[in-house]
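Run log, item B.
One chain of 211 residues. Sequence copied directly from the ordering sheet:
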Amino acid sequence: MSEDPRSTAEHPGRREARVAAVARACWIAVLVFTGIFHFIRGAPVDTSIFLAGAAVITLDALGWLQVPLIARIDRLTRSRRLLAFVLIAVASAVLALSPLYGGADTAIVVGIGLLVLPVAWAGPQAGAHPDAPPRAAVRRAAIAWSVLVVAGCAWEIAVYFLGRASPVGSAEFPALSDLLDPLIFWPPTRLVLVAVWLLGGYVLIRRGHRS
């Protein structure tokens, strides 16, 4: 007697929940691993940031951190878009003109993170959004970003240990931040890089709430 296909087929909701759980566990592992790496290299501030992020995501995954926020993408009017672009332009200009690695740019970056965190954490509205990208496109984008992030992490880990083993140190094996320092120190290029960073975050939040 053959089994009912409906009893053996996996429910789509369960499959999506399992995929989401695996993805969340992978991100937690990445944050913990990054925190341990920064602890080994003697960067306690970076260690605290990454381990705090892992703890927050873990609490959310366990259902102990419920944030009652819903993203209302349909209410983003033209005036609110204009306000977002003006804030991005102002923040980019201030960060470009302020002393690098000073108190002002640190306060601005932390302030932007605190302001954007509730927006990014908010869950999407119920129902499919008409402008939502196809699942295949989201999957391809996730794979591409994952490859890019893993490549960057592999570079940083490799140059760190190679620099420690080499007599000339980090001069022979520079980190990505050292390679970008000439661009970051020049205010015009810093303005462009900060603007791209903020606009990219704005687009990712908008697209993430639609998907």
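Observations after the first pass:
- The two ends are 42 Å apart (CA to CA).
- The helical segments are 5-8, 12-40, 44-61, 78-97, 103-121, 135-165, 176-185, 187-210.
Flagged for discussion on Thursday.
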